[in-house]
Design goal:
Layout: H1 9-17, H2 40-55, H3 60-67, H4 74-80, H5 90-97, H6 100-112, H7 114-124, H8 128-139, E1 148-149, H9 150-160, H10 164-179, E2 189-190, H11 203-209, H12 225-238, E3 248-252, E4 267-268, H13 269-274, E5 278-279, H14 287-290, E6 293-297, E7 306-309, H15 311-319, H16 323-336, H17 355-367, H18 381-393, H19 404-425, H20 432-444, H21 458-470, H22 481-493
Antiparallel strand pairs: 1-2, 3-5, 3-7, 4-6, 6-7
Helix pairs in contact: 2-3, 2-9, 4-9, 5-16, 6-8, 7-12, 8-12, 8-16, 9-10, 10-11, 15-16, 17-19, 20-22
Protein backbone atom coordinates (compact mmCIF):
# COMPACT_ATOMS: atom_id res chain seq x y z
CA UNK A 1 0.00 0.00 0.00
CA UNK A 2 1.36 3.38 -0.96
CA UNK A 3 1.12 5.77 1.94
CA UNK A 4 2.34 9.33 1.90
CA UNK A 5 5.08 9.85 4.46
CA UNK A 6 3.99 13.24 5.75
CA UNK A 7 1.14 15.61 5.20
CA UNK A 8 2.14 18.82 3.50
CA UNK A 9 2.91 21.62 5.91
CA UNK A 10 0.11 23.76 4.51
CA UNK A 11 -2.42 20.94 4.78
CA UNK A 12 -1.39 20.17 8.34
CA UNK A 13 -1.74 23.84 9.19
CA UNK A 14 -5.20 23.85 7.72
CA UNK A 15 -6.25 21.00 9.98
CA UNK A 16 -4.94 22.78 13.06
CA UNK A 17 -6.08 26.32 12.32
CA UNK A 18 -9.13 25.57 10.23
CA UNK A 19 -7.81 27.65 7.31
CA UNK A 20 -7.13 26.44 3.79
CA UNK A 21 -3.65 27.18 2.45
CA UNK A 22 -3.56 30.80 1.32
CA UNK A 23 -7.25 31.28 2.09
CA UNK A 24 -8.68 33.12 5.05
CA UNK A 25 -10.71 30.79 7.28
CA UNK A 26 -14.44 31.02 6.74
CA UNK A 27 -16.34 32.05 9.82
CA UNK A 28 -19.70 30.61 8.75
CA UNK A 29 -20.86 27.41 10.46
CA UNK A 30 -22.81 25.04 8.22
CA UNK A 31 -25.64 22.82 9.36
CA UNK A 32 -25.30 19.23 8.20
CA UNK A 33 -27.98 16.54 8.44
CA UNK A 34 -26.05 13.39 9.15
CA UNK A 35 -27.82 10.13 9.84
CA UNK A 36 -26.85 8.67 13.21
CA UNK A 37 -24.32 5.90 12.81
CA UNK A 38 -25.21 4.31 16.13
CA UNK A 39 -21.75 5.24 17.45
CA UNK A 40 -21.80 8.42 19.50
CA UNK A 41 -18.02 8.91 19.39
CA UNK A 42 -17.97 8.56 15.60
CA UNK A 43 -20.89 10.97 15.21
CA UNK A 44 -19.17 13.57 17.38
CA UNK A 45 -15.96 13.28 15.36
CA UNK A 46 -17.89 13.53 12.05
CA UNK A 47 -19.69 16.69 13.11
CA UNK A 48 -16.47 18.36 14.16
CA UNK A 49 -14.53 17.25 11.10
CA UNK A 50 -17.24 18.54 8.75
CA UNK A 51 -16.82 22.05 10.16
CA UNK A 52 -13.03 21.82 9.94
CA UNK A 53 -13.26 20.61 6.35
CA UNK A 54 -15.51 23.52 5.34
CA UNK A 55 -13.08 25.92 6.99
CA UNK A 56 -10.29 24.28 4.98
CA UNK A 57 -12.15 25.09 1.77
CA UNK A 58 -14.01 21.89 0.99
CA UNK A 59 -17.49 21.90 -0.52
CA UNK A 60 -20.35 21.55 2.00
CA UNK A 61 -22.38 19.70 -0.63
CA UNK A 62 -19.63 17.12 -1.15
CA UNK A 63 -19.20 16.80 2.61
CA UNK A 64 -22.89 16.13 3.07
CA UNK A 65 -22.95 13.60 0.26
CA UNK A 66 -19.80 11.78 1.34
CA UNK A 67 -20.13 11.81 5.13
CA UNK A 68 -23.89 11.67 5.58
CA UNK A 69 -24.51 7.91 5.33
CA UNK A 70 -21.26 6.73 6.88
CA UNK A 71 -20.98 4.19 9.69
CA UNK A 72 -17.67 3.14 11.25
CA UNK A 73 -16.31 -0.32 10.49
CA UNK A 74 -14.68 -1.84 13.62
CA UNK A 75 -12.94 -4.51 11.54
CA UNK A 76 -10.84 -1.79 9.91
CA UNK A 77 -9.42 -0.70 13.27
CA UNK A 78 -8.58 -4.33 14.07
CA UNK A 79 -6.69 -4.73 10.80
CA UNK A 80 -4.84 -1.47 11.38
CA UNK A 81 -3.50 -2.80 14.67
CA UNK A 82 -2.47 -6.22 13.34
CA UNK A 83 -0.63 -5.61 10.09
CA UNK A 84 0.95 -8.85 8.88
CA UNK A 85 4.42 -7.56 8.11
CA UNK A 86 5.05 -6.98 11.81
CA UNK A 87 3.89 -10.33 13.20
CA UNK A 88 5.26 -12.98 10.81
CA UNK A 89 8.86 -14.16 10.37
CA UNK A 90 10.60 -12.46 7.47
CA UNK A 91 10.98 -15.73 5.56
CA UNK A 92 7.30 -16.56 5.96
CA UNK A 93 6.26 -13.12 4.80
CA UNK A 94 8.48 -13.29 1.72
CA UNK A 95 7.83 -16.93 0.79
CA UNK A 96 4.08 -16.30 0.83
CA UNK A 97 4.48 -13.43 -1.62
CA UNK A 98 7.18 -14.69 -4.00
CA UNK A 99 5.63 -17.87 -5.35
CA UNK A 100 5.95 -19.74 -8.67
CA UNK A 101 2.32 -18.89 -9.45
CA UNK A 102 2.86 -15.17 -8.79
CA UNK A 103 6.00 -15.17 -10.93
CA UNK A 104 4.35 -17.05 -13.80
CA UNK A 105 1.42 -14.66 -13.84
CA UNK A 106 3.79 -11.72 -13.84
CA UNK A 107 5.66 -13.07 -16.84
CA UNK A 108 2.35 -13.53 -18.66
CA UNK A 109 1.25 -9.99 -17.78
CA UNK A 110 4.58 -8.60 -18.97
CA UNK A 111 4.18 -10.37 -22.30
CA UNK A 112 0.52 -9.41 -22.75
CA UNK A 113 1.35 -5.72 -22.15
CA UNK A 114 4.86 -5.74 -23.60
CA UNK A 115 4.57 -2.53 -25.62
CA UNK A 116 2.86 -0.68 -22.79
CA UNK A 117 5.60 -1.67 -20.35
CA UNK A 118 8.27 -0.66 -22.85
CA UNK A 119 6.69 2.73 -23.47
CA UNK A 120 6.19 3.44 -19.76
CA UNK A 121 9.79 2.46 -18.99
CA UNK A 122 11.08 4.63 -21.80
CA UNK A 123 9.12 7.67 -20.62
CA UNK A 124 9.78 7.45 -16.88
CA UNK A 125 13.09 5.56 -16.81
CA UNK A 126 11.84 3.05 -14.25
CA UNK A 127 12.56 -0.66 -14.73
CA UNK A 128 9.41 -2.29 -16.13
CA UNK A 129 9.94 -5.40 -13.99
CA UNK A 130 9.94 -3.28 -10.82
CA UNK A 131 6.67 -1.66 -11.94
CA UNK A 132 5.21 -5.13 -12.48
CA UNK A 133 6.48 -6.25 -9.07
CA UNK A 134 4.70 -3.41 -7.31
CA UNK A 135 1.55 -4.08 -9.33
CA UNK A 136 1.75 -7.70 -8.19
CA UNK A 137 2.26 -6.96 -4.50
CA UNK A 138 -0.33 -4.22 -4.25
CA UNK A 139 -3.34 -5.83 -5.95
CA UNK A 140 -2.14 -9.06 -7.64
CA UNK A 141 -1.92 -7.39 -11.04
CA UNK A 142 -5.23 -5.63 -10.53
CA UNK A 143 -7.24 -8.75 -9.71
CA UNK A 144 -7.34 -8.34 -5.94
CA UNK A 145 -10.79 -7.17 -4.80
CA UNK A 146 -11.05 -3.77 -3.14
CA UNK A 147 -13.95 -4.42 -0.77
CA UNK A 148 -14.04 -1.09 1.01
CA UNK A 149 -15.27 2.38 0.18
CA UNK A 150 -12.52 4.89 0.83
CA UNK A 151 -14.75 7.43 2.64
CA UNK A 152 -15.85 4.84 5.20
CA UNK A 153 -12.36 3.40 5.66
CA UNK A 154 -10.66 6.75 6.12
CA UNK A 155 -13.42 8.14 8.35
CA UNK A 156 -13.26 5.04 10.56
CA UNK A 157 -9.51 5.44 11.04
CA UNK A 158 -9.73 9.19 11.55
CA UNK A 159 -12.43 8.80 14.19
CA UNK A 160 -10.41 6.09 15.92
CA UNK A 161 -7.93 8.84 16.76
CA UNK A 162 -4.59 7.00 16.67
CA UNK A 163 -3.51 8.95 13.57
CA UNK A 164 -6.37 11.38 13.28
CA UNK A 165 -4.61 14.28 11.54
CA UNK A 166 -3.15 11.95 8.94
CA UNK A 167 -6.46 10.35 7.99
CA UNK A 168 -8.37 13.61 8.11
CA UNK A 169 -5.84 14.91 5.61
CA UNK A 170 -6.58 11.94 3.35
CA UNK A 171 -10.31 12.67 3.62
CA UNK A 172 -9.76 16.27 2.56
CA UNK A 173 -7.82 15.07 -0.48
CA UNK A 174 -10.58 12.56 -1.27
CA UNK A 175 -13.13 15.35 -1.25
CA UNK A 176 -10.94 17.42 -3.56
CA UNK A 177 -10.86 14.48 -6.00
CA UNK A 178 -14.67 14.50 -6.11
CA UNK A 179 -14.86 18.29 -6.40
CA UNK A 180 -12.52 18.22 -9.42
CA UNK A 181 -14.54 15.50 -11.09
CA UNK A 182 -11.80 12.90 -11.07
CA UNK A 183 -14.05 10.28 -9.49
CA UNK A 184 -17.57 9.98 -8.07
CA UNK A 185 -18.29 9.40 -4.36
CA UNK A 186 -19.41 5.82 -4.99
CA UNK A 187 -16.50 4.88 -7.25
CA UNK A 188 -13.64 5.08 -4.78
CA UNK A 189 -12.97 1.43 -4.00
CA UNK A 190 -10.12 0.94 -1.61
CA UNK A 191 -8.32 -1.31 0.81
CA UNK A 192 -9.23 -1.31 4.48
CA UNK A 193 -6.76 1.57 4.95
CA UNK A 194 -8.31 3.72 2.22
CA UNK A 195 -5.63 3.03 -0.41
CA UNK A 196 -7.10 3.56 -3.85
CA UNK A 197 -7.14 1.45 -6.97
CA UNK A 198 -4.58 -0.92 -8.41
CA UNK A 199 -1.49 1.09 -7.33
CA UNK A 200 -2.99 1.57 -3.83
CA UNK A 201 -2.39 5.31 -3.74
CA UNK A 202 -3.57 7.33 -0.79
CA UNK A 203 -5.78 10.26 -1.90
CA UNK A 204 -3.10 12.96 -1.63
CA UNK A 205 -0.73 10.81 -3.71
CA UNK A 206 -3.47 10.31 -6.28
CA UNK A 207 -3.81 14.09 -6.62
CA UNK A 208 -0.08 14.69 -7.04
CA UNK A 209 1.11 11.59 -8.87
CA UNK A 210 -1.55 9.65 -10.81
CA UNK A 211 -1.21 9.80 -14.60
CA UNK A 212 -3.70 9.98 -17.48
CA UNK A 213 -1.62 7.73 -19.73
CA UNK A 214 -4.02 7.41 -22.67
CA UNK A 215 -5.15 11.05 -22.66
CA UNK A 216 -8.84 10.34 -22.18
CA UNK A 217 -9.15 13.04 -19.54
CA UNK A 218 -9.32 10.60 -16.63
CA UNK A 219 -6.79 9.20 -14.20
CA UNK A 220 -8.44 5.84 -13.80
CA UNK A 221 -6.23 3.73 -11.54
CA UNK A 222 -9.10 1.31 -10.89
CA UNK A 223 -9.74 -0.02 -14.40
CA UNK A 224 -7.13 1.39 -16.81
CA UNK A 225 -3.88 -0.60 -17.00
CA UNK A 226 -1.99 2.19 -18.74
CA UNK A 227 -2.98 4.77 -16.12
CA UNK A 228 -2.07 2.27 -13.39
CA UNK A 229 1.41 1.38 -14.62
CA UNK A 230 2.29 4.94 -15.57
CA UNK A 231 1.16 6.19 -12.15
CA UNK A 232 3.41 3.65 -10.39
CA UNK A 233 6.33 4.62 -12.61
CA UNK A 234 5.71 8.33 -12.07
CA UNK A 235 5.76 7.84 -8.31
CA UNK A 236 9.11 6.04 -8.37
CA UNK A 237 10.65 8.47 -10.88
CA UNK A 238 9.61 11.45 -8.76
CA UNK A 239 11.38 9.93 -5.76
CA UNK A 240 14.74 9.49 -7.39
CA UNK A 241 14.75 6.25 -9.37
CA UNK A 242 18.12 5.88 -11.10
CA UNK A 243 17.71 4.64 -14.65
CA UNK A 244 19.74 1.53 -15.41
CA UNK A 245 21.15 1.04 -11.91
CA UNK A 246 20.75 -2.19 -9.89
CA UNK A 247 18.47 -2.64 -6.88
CA UNK A 248 20.30 -5.29 -4.83
CA UNK A 249 22.88 -8.04 -5.04
CA UNK A 250 23.27 -11.00 -2.72
CA UNK A 251 26.78 -11.53 -1.37
CA UNK A 252 28.81 -14.04 0.59
CA UNK A 253 30.58 -12.71 3.68
CA UNK A 254 33.72 -14.14 5.32
CA UNK A 255 33.46 -15.88 8.70
CA UNK A 256 35.42 -13.09 10.37
CA UNK A 257 33.10 -10.38 9.07
CA UNK A 258 32.05 -7.62 11.46
CA UNK A 259 28.26 -7.73 11.22
CA UNK A 260 27.97 -4.43 13.06
CA UNK A 261 28.80 -2.83 9.70
CA UNK A 262 25.26 -3.70 8.59
CA UNK A 263 24.08 -0.55 10.33
CA UNK A 264 22.43 1.24 7.43
CA UNK A 265 25.57 3.15 6.45
CA UNK A 266 26.10 3.37 2.68
CA UNK A 267 29.66 2.58 1.62
CA UNK A 268 31.27 2.21 -1.82
CA UNK A 269 30.95 -1.32 -3.21
CA UNK A 270 34.74 -1.33 -3.50
CA UNK A 271 34.91 -1.03 0.30
CA UNK A 272 32.54 -3.95 0.82
CA UNK A 273 34.67 -6.01 -1.55
CA UNK A 274 37.79 -5.04 0.38
CA UNK A 275 36.04 -6.31 3.54
CA UNK A 276 35.51 -9.69 1.90
CA UNK A 277 32.04 -9.43 0.32
CA UNK A 278 31.69 -11.52 -2.85
CA UNK A 279 28.72 -11.61 -5.21
CA UNK A 280 26.86 -14.92 -5.17
CA UNK A 281 26.65 -14.68 -8.96
CA UNK A 282 30.35 -15.51 -9.17
CA UNK A 283 31.10 -12.45 -11.27
CA UNK A 284 33.24 -9.51 -10.23
CA UNK A 285 31.77 -6.03 -10.10
CA UNK A 286 32.47 -3.65 -12.95
CA UNK A 287 34.20 -0.36 -12.20
CA UNK A 288 30.90 1.53 -12.48
CA UNK A 289 29.32 -0.67 -9.79
CA UNK A 290 32.43 -0.58 -7.59
CA UNK A 291 32.03 3.18 -7.34
CA UNK A 292 28.36 3.00 -6.29
CA UNK A 293 27.29 3.31 -2.68
CA UNK A 294 25.42 0.41 -1.10
CA UNK A 295 24.18 -0.61 2.34
CA UNK A 296 24.62 -4.08 3.78
CA UNK A 297 21.28 -5.65 4.73
CA UNK A 298 20.87 -8.79 6.86
CA UNK A 299 17.10 -9.47 6.78
CA UNK A 300 17.44 -12.53 9.06
CA UNK A 301 20.67 -11.74 10.85
CA UNK A 302 24.13 -13.20 10.45
CA UNK A 303 22.88 -16.70 9.65
CA UNK A 304 20.63 -15.61 6.76
CA UNK A 305 21.15 -14.01 3.35
CA UNK A 306 23.34 -10.92 3.06
CA UNK A 307 22.41 -8.25 0.51
CA UNK A 308 24.02 -5.11 -0.82
CA UNK A 309 21.24 -2.55 -1.29
CA UNK A 310 21.67 0.16 -3.90
CA UNK A 311 19.84 3.53 -3.89
CA UNK A 312 16.98 2.18 -6.03
CA UNK A 313 16.05 -0.17 -3.17
CA UNK A 314 15.38 2.90 -1.01
CA UNK A 315 13.14 4.30 -3.75
CA UNK A 316 11.01 1.15 -3.59
CA UNK A 317 10.87 1.59 0.18
CA UNK A 318 9.43 5.05 -0.43
CA UNK A 319 6.42 3.30 -1.95
CA UNK A 320 5.96 1.32 1.26
CA UNK A 321 8.37 1.90 4.18
CA UNK A 322 9.20 -1.77 4.72
CA UNK A 323 12.44 -3.58 3.89
CA UNK A 324 10.42 -6.75 3.43
CA UNK A 325 8.12 -5.08 0.93
CA UNK A 326 11.01 -3.74 -1.12
CA UNK A 327 12.73 -7.13 -1.06
CA UNK A 328 9.59 -8.89 -2.32
CA UNK A 329 9.23 -6.44 -5.20
CA UNK A 330 12.92 -6.84 -6.05
CA UNK A 331 12.77 -10.64 -5.96
CA UNK A 332 9.70 -10.71 -8.19
CA UNK A 333 11.32 -8.34 -10.66
CA UNK A 334 14.43 -10.50 -10.89
CA UNK A 335 12.28 -13.61 -11.35
CA UNK A 336 10.41 -12.03 -14.27
CA UNK A 337 13.79 -11.66 -15.97
CA UNK A 338 14.53 -15.34 -15.41
CA UNK A 339 16.82 -14.77 -12.45
CA UNK A 340 17.03 -16.99 -9.39
CA UNK A 341 15.95 -16.17 -5.86
CA UNK A 342 18.23 -15.88 -2.86
CA UNK A 343 21.08 -18.36 -2.70
CA UNK A 344 21.51 -18.69 1.04
CA UNK A 345 18.50 -20.37 2.72
CA UNK A 346 16.51 -18.70 5.46
CA UNK A 347 17.63 -19.74 8.98
CA UNK A 348 14.18 -20.86 10.10
CA UNK A 349 15.69 -22.82 12.99
CA UNK A 350 16.66 -19.66 14.89
CA UNK A 351 13.02 -18.59 15.18
CA UNK A 352 11.53 -15.12 15.34
CA UNK A 353 9.57 -12.99 17.78
CA UNK A 354 5.85 -12.42 18.03
CA UNK A 355 4.55 -8.91 18.54
CA UNK A 356 4.15 -9.46 22.29
CA UNK A 357 7.68 -10.82 22.52
CA UNK A 358 8.96 -7.80 20.61
CA UNK A 359 7.25 -5.57 23.16
CA UNK A 360 9.02 -7.48 25.95
CA UNK A 361 12.35 -7.13 24.16
CA UNK A 362 11.95 -3.40 23.63
CA UNK A 363 11.03 -2.83 27.27
CA UNK A 364 13.97 -4.91 28.50
CA UNK A 365 16.43 -3.18 26.16
CA UNK A 366 15.24 0.21 27.34
CA UNK A 367 15.69 -0.85 30.96
CA UNK A 368 19.27 -1.90 30.19
CA UNK A 369 20.03 1.48 28.63
CA UNK A 370 19.84 0.40 24.97
CA UNK A 371 17.17 2.75 23.68
CA UNK A 372 14.69 1.15 21.30
CA UNK A 373 12.19 4.00 21.57
CA UNK A 374 8.65 3.67 22.87
CA UNK A 375 7.76 -0.05 22.86
CA UNK A 376 5.30 -0.73 20.05
CA UNK A 377 5.92 -4.38 19.12
CA UNK A 378 7.30 -3.41 15.71
CA UNK A 379 10.81 -4.21 14.56
CA UNK A 380 12.01 -0.86 13.25
CA UNK A 381 15.38 0.81 12.90
CA UNK A 382 15.55 1.95 16.54
CA UNK A 383 14.99 -1.59 17.82
CA UNK A 384 17.50 -3.00 15.34
CA UNK A 385 20.08 -0.47 16.55
CA UNK A 386 19.37 -1.26 20.22
CA UNK A 387 19.71 -5.01 19.57
CA UNK A 388 23.02 -4.42 17.80
CA UNK A 389 24.34 -2.34 20.70
CA UNK A 390 23.34 -5.01 23.20
CA UNK A 391 24.98 -7.73 21.10
CA UNK A 392 28.19 -5.73 20.96
CA UNK A 393 28.13 -5.25 24.73
CA UNK A 394 28.04 -9.01 25.38
CA UNK A 395 30.34 -10.12 22.58
CA UNK A 396 27.71 -11.58 20.24
CA UNK A 397 27.73 -11.12 16.44
CA UNK A 398 26.19 -7.67 16.13
CA UNK A 399 23.73 -8.42 13.32
CA UNK A 400 20.82 -6.54 14.93
CA UNK A 401 18.46 -9.48 14.53
CA UNK A 402 16.28 -10.48 17.52
CA UNK A 403 15.63 -14.17 18.23
CA UNK A 404 13.87 -15.98 21.08
CA UNK A 405 17.29 -16.93 22.49
CA UNK A 406 18.38 -13.28 22.47
CA UNK A 407 15.12 -12.26 24.14
CA UNK A 408 15.77 -14.72 26.98
CA UNK A 409 19.26 -13.27 27.51
CA UNK A 410 18.06 -9.68 27.48
CA UNK A 411 15.14 -10.40 29.80
CA UNK A 412 17.43 -12.29 32.17
CA UNK A 413 19.84 -9.39 32.34
CA UNK A 414 16.99 -6.92 32.73
CA UNK A 415 15.50 -8.97 35.54
CA UNK A 416 18.92 -8.94 37.18
CA UNK A 417 18.65 -5.17 37.55
CA UNK A 418 15.38 -5.60 39.45
CA UNK A 419 16.87 -8.38 41.60
CA UNK A 420 19.93 -6.28 42.43
CA UNK A 421 17.73 -3.38 43.51
CA UNK A 422 15.57 -5.72 45.56
CA UNK A 423 18.60 -7.26 47.27
CA UNK A 424 20.09 -3.87 48.08
CA UNK A 425 16.82 -2.67 49.58
CA UNK A 426 15.98 -5.88 51.42
CA UNK A 427 16.38 -6.00 55.23
CA UNK A 428 18.78 -8.47 56.78
CA UNK A 429 17.38 -11.54 58.51
CA UNK A 430 17.40 -10.75 62.23
CA UNK A 431 16.14 -13.96 63.79
CA UNK A 432 17.68 -17.41 64.03
CA UNK A 433 14.46 -18.86 62.61
CA UNK A 434 14.82 -16.75 59.48
CA UNK A 435 18.49 -17.67 59.03
CA UNK A 436 17.68 -21.33 59.65
CA UNK A 437 15.02 -21.21 56.90
CA UNK A 438 17.57 -19.72 54.50
CA UNK A 439 20.14 -22.36 55.40
CA UNK A 440 17.59 -25.14 54.83
CA UNK A 441 16.83 -23.77 51.35
CA UNK A 442 20.55 -23.46 50.55
CA UNK A 443 21.13 -27.03 51.69
CA UNK A 444 18.30 -28.28 49.52
CA UNK A 445 19.73 -26.64 46.37
CA UNK A 446 23.22 -27.88 47.12
CA UNK A 447 24.85 -24.58 48.03
CA UNK A 448 25.47 -25.38 51.73
CA UNK A 449 26.60 -28.49 53.55
CA UNK A 450 26.02 -29.30 57.16
CA UNK A 451 23.04 -28.46 59.27
CA UNK A 452 20.87 -25.38 59.65
CA UNK A 453 21.99 -23.84 62.96
CA UNK A 454 20.55 -20.31 62.58
CA UNK A 455 23.96 -18.59 62.69
CA UNK A 456 25.45 -16.67 59.72
CA UNK A 457 28.98 -18.02 59.78
CA UNK A 458 31.66 -18.13 57.05
CA UNK A 459 30.20 -21.26 55.41
CA UNK A 460 26.74 -19.72 55.24
CA UNK A 461 28.11 -16.49 53.78
CA UNK A 462 30.02 -18.43 51.10
CA UNK A 463 26.84 -20.34 50.28
CA UNK A 464 24.90 -17.08 49.96
CA UNK A 465 27.59 -15.67 47.66
CA UNK A 466 27.46 -18.77 45.48
CA UNK A 467 23.69 -18.49 45.24
CA UNK A 468 23.88 -14.77 44.40
CA UNK A 469 26.27 -15.48 41.55
CA UNK A 470 23.95 -18.22 40.26
CA UNK A 471 21.15 -15.66 39.82
CA UNK A 472 23.45 -13.03 38.26
CA UNK A 473 23.86 -10.88 41.36
CA UNK A 474 26.96 -9.35 42.84
CA UNK A 475 28.23 -11.63 45.62
CA UNK A 476 27.63 -9.82 48.91
CA UNK A 477 27.02 -12.71 51.32
CA UNK A 478 24.17 -10.77 52.93
CA UNK A 479 21.44 -12.92 54.49
CA UNK A 480 18.37 -10.91 53.51
CA UNK A 481 14.66 -11.51 53.18
CA UNK A 482 15.05 -11.22 49.39
CA UNK A 483 17.71 -13.96 49.30
CA UNK A 484 15.50 -16.15 51.50
CA UNK A 485 12.56 -15.71 49.13
CA UNK A 486 14.68 -16.44 46.03
CA UNK A 487 16.33 -19.47 47.65
CA UNK A 488 12.93 -20.88 48.61
CA UNK A 489 11.75 -20.48 45.00
CA UNK A 490 14.83 -22.28 43.75
CA UNK A 491 14.41 -25.03 46.34
CA UNK A 492 10.75 -25.54 45.49
CA UNK A 493 11.56 -25.89 41.79
CA UNK A 494 14.59 -28.13 42.34
CA UNK A 495 14.19 -31.89 41.85
CA UNK A 496 13.93 -33.88 45.01
CA UNK A 497 17.30 -35.17 46.17
CA UNK A 498 17.58 -38.91 46.41
CA UNK A 499 18.62 -40.46 49.66
CA UNK A 500 20.27 -43.86 49.81
CA UNK A 501 19.81 -46.31 52.60
CA UNK A 502 22.58 -48.57 53.78
CA UNK A 503 21.94 -52.20 53.03
CA UNK A 504 22.13 -54.56 55.92
CA UNK A 505 24.68 -57.26 55.57
Amino acid sequence: MKRSNLLGAALAAALVTGAAPGVQAQQQTYTFTFTSSGDAAFDAWRAGFAQRAVAAGRSPAVLQQMLGPLRPDPSIVTQDQNQAEFVRPVWDYINRAVTPAKIAEGVQRRQANAQLFTDVERRFGVDADIIAGIWAVETNYGTFPLPHDAPQALATLAADGRRRAQFEGYLLALMEMVEKGYVGPGEMKSSWAGALGQPQFMPDIYLSTSVDWDGDGKRDIWNNTGDTLASIANYLAARGWRRGEPVYDEVYLPQSFDYALADGTARPVSQWVALGARSTSGFGYMDQVMAMNAQLFLPAGAQGPALLLFPNFAVIRAYNPSDRYALIVSLLARAYEGGNGLVKPWPVEIGSLTRDQMLDLQGALNKLGFSSGTPDGMFGSATRRAVRQYQQSVGLPADGYPTPALLDRVKGRSAGIDRAAAQNASPSLRTQAGVRSLQQALIRIGKLRGRADGDVGPATRRAIEAFERSIDLEATGRATQFILDEARKAANSAPARRTTKKRRR
